[in-house]
C-alpha cells in the first residue's frame, strides 16, 4: 500500500507530486529544492542551498519514520558542476560511511543551484 508522507517542515509540492511516498520498508523522497519552509527564504550559496535541501529531506524522512542513515540512493542535480566540491563537502556533514550510492549530474535548474531526491530503506514496515 502506498502511503503519502507530508510535513509542513519541508516546502509543500509546487505541482502534482508528493513530498514522499512510503511503500513497505522503502521511502521515496521527491526532488527537494533549497526553500526554507519556516520562513519562505532561499539561501544564496551552493553550500547553504545544499544544507537546506538535505535538511528538507531529513524532515520528510523523519515524518516517514526514517533517518538519513537509512538512505540507500541519492540523485543530485547541480546547476553548475564546478560547484561539486563545495556541494560534496556539505554532503559529508549529512552522510557517513557506508555512503549511499549516488548519481550527481549537471542540470538546468529553475533559479536554484541544487536539487536532490533520495530513496531510503527502513528496517521495519511501520505503517
Tally of separate domains: 1
Strand order of the largest sheet: 1-2-3-6-4-5
- Which structural category do the helix and sheet elements fall into? alpha+beta
Note the total helix count: 2
CATH architecture: 2-Layer Sandwich
Q: Kindly state the mean pLDDT as a whole number?
A: 96
| Spans where pLDDT lies below 50 across 5 or more residues | none
CATH C-level label: Alpha Beta
Q: In sequence order, what are the helices and strands, one letter per element?
A: EEEHEHEE
Q: Give the strand content.
A: 25-35%
What is the strand tally? 6
The major beta sheet can be summarized as:
6 strands, mixed
In the CATH hierarchy, what is the superfamily?
RutC-like
Shape: globular
Task: Give Rg in angstroms.
Answer: 14 Å
Report the CATH topology name: 60s Ribosomal Protein L30, Chain: A
Residue share in helix: 10-25%
Descriptors for this entry?
6 strands; alpha+beta; 60s Ribosomal Protein L30, Chain: A; 127 residues
Description:
The protein has 127 residues and is an alpha+beta fold. It has a single domain, classed as 2-Layer Sandwich (60s Ribosomal Protein L30, Chain: A). It is built from two helices and six strands, in the order βββαβαββ. It has helices spanning 46-63, 84-94, and strands spanning 2-5, 20-23, 26-32, 71-78, 101-106, 114-121. It has a six-stranded mixed β-sheet with strand order 1-2-3-6-4-5, with helices on one face. It starts with a strand and ends in a 6-residue tail after the last strand.
